[in-house]
Amino acid sequence: MEAGQQLKLSLLHAGHIRVGTNWNFDGVISPFARLYLITDGDAWVIHQHQKFQLKPGFLYLIPSFTLSRYGCETEMEQYYLTFLEDTDTGQSVFNQLTFCYETPARPVDPHLFRRLLDINPEASLQNIDPKVYDNRANLLSFNQPFSTKPDARLIETQAILTQLLSRFMLPDQQHTAGISQTVNQYRTVLAFIHAHLQEKLTVGELAGLLGMHVDYFSRQFLAVLGVRPIDYIINKRMERAQLLMTTTDLSLQDIAEQVGISDIYYFSRLFKRRFGVPPARYRKQILLNK
Questions:
Q1: What is the CATH number of the domain that holds 266?
Q2: Looking at the domain assignment, is residue 203 inside a domain?
Q3: How confident is the model at residue 132, as a pLDDT?
Q4: Is 145 found in the same domain as 68?
Q5: pTM
């Protein structure tokens, strides 16, 4: 991340649980990240085209919007937490920095999890099935802008989340840091996209923010961010749509319009292309598992 950029981590769920063969889920894609500390037993998760055998004494990270699969043949005991991450430009921290997904826990980490549970006793999951807790009530109850939690608890919670997330950052960030310095030029553009997803956005309008010619801007955007401007906008709109689908009662038409797409059929095609399932089926799965 470039200097001065703000990272906000918002806790959704946290707890300590022993699971068995019922911890078996496929096709999980969530708008939040997951972090585990295994304390006993073993299980596995698959994501990023890798299979991670979960071992006691290790921390595991699954970034947001990541297709994943879980399985346990016997029993496994874990601390868990889920969280939303956001920056002032709308750029995911997982797209800006390089992370590993498995790392040995430090001696202090179990104490950090216990402290997190002490100050957030209401955050434990009542059902371990992701299709149940990826729902609007769970997300909204812990992600209100004006929380009733005392400020000290919010600050301490954010500090613990940041500390645990930092365990997964690779020590050599020189390449990513260089990219971030270049991305700094595009902070105005990224922040503008993030704040105006519900409106009509054109590449010409974005190029004008930096005083660039459209063709030059498009080439530079692709070179710096690895994706064309229009594809970046679509990805952000689909991620916003998934979050709205799981955190509100808005109709699919209303959600499509709130992310700047008035044609519900075009919206459905884009959503299925991004997440592998049509939005109507995704919403039905949420409602059936509430």
A1: 1.10.10.60
A2: yes
A3: 59
A4: yes
A5: 0.66
User: CATH number of the domain that 23 lies in?
Assistant: 2.60.120.10
Rounded-to-integer distance, Cα 1 and Cα 180, Å: 6
Amino acid at 85: E
Residue with more model confidence, 182 or 268: 268
Question: Tokens 């916003």 identify what position?
Answer: 240
Q: Which amino acid is at 274?
A: R
For the chain, what's the residue count?
A: 290
Q: What share of the chain has pLDDT > 70, as a percent? A: 82
Q: Is the pLDDT of residue 138 over 50?
A: no
Structural domain for 58, as ranges: 7-166
Three-class HEC string of the chain = CCCCCCEEEEEEEEEEEEECCCCCEEEECCCCEEEEEEEEECEEEEECCEEEEECCCEEEEECCCCCEEEECCCCEEEEEEEEEEEECCCCCHHHHCCECCEEECCCCHHHHHHHHHHHCHHHCCCCCCHHHHCCHHHHHHCCCCCCCCCHHHHHHHHHHHHHHHHCCECCCCHHHHHHHHHHHHHHHHHHHHHHCCCCCCCHHHHHHHCCCCHHHHHHHHHHHHCCCHHHHHHHHHHHHHHHHHHHCCCCHHHHHHHCCCCCHHHHHHHHHHHHCCCHHHHHHHHHHCC
Q: For residue 266, count CB atoms less than 10 angstroms from its CB and return exposed for 0-12, middle for 13-18, buried for 19 or more.
A: exposed
Statement to judge: residues 98 and 53 lie in one domain: yes
Task: Note whether 39 and 156 are same-domain residues.
Answer: yes
